[in-house]
Amino acid sequence: xxxLFLKFLPPFLVAFAVSLSLAYLYNKAKEQPTDGKxxxxxxxxxxxxxxxxxxxxxxxxxxxxxxxxxxxxxIGIAGLFGILGLYILLxxxxxxxxxxxxxxSMSSIWSPPKRGLWKELESASFKKNGxxxxxxxxxxxxxxxxxxxxxxxxxxxxxxSLGVRVGSI
Length: 169
What we know:
8 strands; 2 domains; 4-stranded antiparallel sheet; PH-domain like; alpha+beta; elongated
């Protein structure tokens, strides 16, 4: 029984720590005043740099430390953290947005710049699976932004002030 407990304790603790970290980041992003700017905070960028540091450390271990031929797990760790870190860094440094009383605009490395006029806003929804908000405008423009983006709560408050309810999907 003790062996089973000790076997499952580390993954449980990691999952718990990740959950607490995400809750902290969501609340931190919600609280930050942004003056109409949307973007990721330094906390998210730090996660990307930590992942890249883990990748670099793993590569150093592969090249300069005796590891008894354990290349496959080390390549897996380096690849996983490398891809994760690169994705987070690209996302956090390239995603930018701005909004005011007239419009909202967003740009990201993953999609072309988008702009929507508030007077053309048709609906707003929160996608629980991806933890992001999506705005749909009458010209067909869809603007999505993460719950981790600083300023997301100000956008939602503005949308609600326009009489559009931010629904949940």
